[in-house]
Amino acid sequence: NRLTIVQYLIKINGVEVIQERNDFDCGLQHWIGLIPKKRWCNNETEEDDAGSGVIPLAKYLHSLGVSYQSTSENSNAQGHTCNHKAAWGGNLALLKYFRQEHNVQDTIQDSAGNYSADLAKMRGH
Fold first, then answer.
1. How many C-beta atoms surround the C-beta of residue 18 within 10 A?
2. pLDDT of 58-105, one tens digit each?
């Protein structure tokens, strides 16, 4: 969730890297949902469920063209959307951001038939 580091890496490697995906078809829109809870905030000593560290990063990536929409085209090889990943990671602040700012709804099932809420429940969130 280090915004300044991400900005630096994009500056060095070019903005096109934001669209890259790995062998499982996961991109930045998926990985942002898996940022560990201890890094959701701006500083390491702050307890922050509001996402003061991860939300600015999400907004920055979106400003460069990263989409958070829950569509089959924006899903990875397992059918996970960014919503699925944030739910799995228990990142309520990011889920709220997706819904409030991008009108993302929990309407897409993954390859196993799970909605985002199902994954959150599996992880005890």
1. 18
2. 999 999 999 999 898 899 999 999 999 999 999 998 999 999 999 999
pTM of the model: 0.87
The Cα 110–Cα 98 span in angstroms is: 18
Q: Residue 1 has which token pair?
A: 């969730």
How many CA atoms are closer than 13 Å to the CA of 90, on its beta-carbon side?
Answer: 11
In three-state form (DSSP H/G/I as H, E/B as E, the rest C), the secondary structure along 40-103 is CCCCCCCCCCCCCCHHHHHHHHHHCCCCCCCCHHHCCCCCCCHHHHHHHHCCHHHHHHHHHHHC
DSSP H or E stretch at residue 118: helix 116-122
Cβ contacts of residue 32 below 8 Å, gap of 6+? 54, 57, 58, 61, 82, 85, 86, 94
CB proximity list for 84: less than 8 A, separation 6 or greater: 33, 108, 110, 114, 116, 119
- C-alpha span between 83 and 98 (Å, rounded): 8
* Total length of the chain: 125
